[in-house]
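pinging the channel bc i need a second pair of eyes. not urgent but kinda urgent?? the chain im working w is below, pasted from the shared doc
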Amino acid sequence: MLGSTVVTGPAQAASVLTVPLAPTVTTAQQVASFWLADGAANLKNATPYAVQTTVAGERLSTDIVPDGPPISIPPVEESTIPTWGTPATSGKVFFIGSDLQPHWCTGTSVYSKYRNLVATAGHCLLDVEAPAGPLAKWVFVPDYSEGTTPFGLYVGKQGLVHYDFDDIRDYDRDLAFVNVYNGVVLSSPDVLTDTGKLADSVGGQGVAFNQPLAPTVDVFGYPAGPNPDGSRPYPGETLERSTGSTFAMKVTGLPADRPVGVDSPFTGEGSLGSSWLTQYTDDTHTGYLNGITVSVSDTDGDDRYDTGVSPYFDRELLTVYQKASNLWTGTIRSTV
């Protein structure tokens, strides 16, 4: 069973870096309009992010020893949240890459005090190709499918990562939490209408740290890229699910000491940031986020990816969540 506790604040705030994204309402409105204008053309034209998508990996038989007591934060459950198909908490995060083109990763709504928090890979927030700060025009679209924004578009106000990911590119810390403003839709060419807080609209997954390796996890993401053999099993337009066992890994070419693997056929492009949910149930569509895809690997050499790779959710990553989960954002709706 998961250990449970109430998280009220960061234990080691100095290890957490806050990255401004759209710190003012005016800037956030401009970001929202960029993505929603012209029938959401920029959302539809975005391509899957292809940075650090693959890694050489080996599965290990050893366990990972937690560095503190188990911690879990329960999910948000609302009677109004849709309970069909896949969880509406998952969606795509969109941004402008260092090539100045629109791209996307996967993101997930998780529990926070102000119901405004998205989890994704750290390198789907920070530009690791040209380390000069965050990826630009960062937004989240929950339950994204084929160009639609069924619950609105949520502009990121600030993102939080562990200091070691920004400073020394420690991929054991490749996890980001982003506080988003209330969602908006474009009700006319110049008017943004508020759709409410993220977790009020779609719910929020629980989060768990310092856990034993889970027997199985459910992975939700938007894989889109090719396998090494050239096959493309996923279109990247709709949310996909895979279920598999987890294990410790050794990776080369990626600075990480305690990576975790999961049996998953997802390809790397598009699935970066995919949620790994333990204790997921189909009736509530909720579970506990206990991993996030930061790369994929072909561990058996058959030219098809078979493993998703995540940092182990330890107490250092807990400090990032603790700070992010207590930050307020607000609305960016247009005034008329």
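so Residues 1-11 have pLDDT under 50 and may be disordered. and The two ends are 51 Å apart (CA to CA). — does that match what u expected or am i reading it wrong
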